[in-house]
Amino acid sequence: MTNDHAANVDRVWELMKKIGFAMLVTHDGDKIRARPMSAFPQRDENTIYMLTDARRHKDEEIARDANVNLSFANASDQKYVSVTGTAVVSNDRAKIKQLFSTPAKAWWKSADDPNIRVLKITPDDAEFWDSPGSVISYVKMAAAAMTGTRPDIGENHKVSM
Question: Of 33, 50, 64, 83, which residue is most buried, by most CB within 10 angstroms?
Answer without folding.
Answer: 83
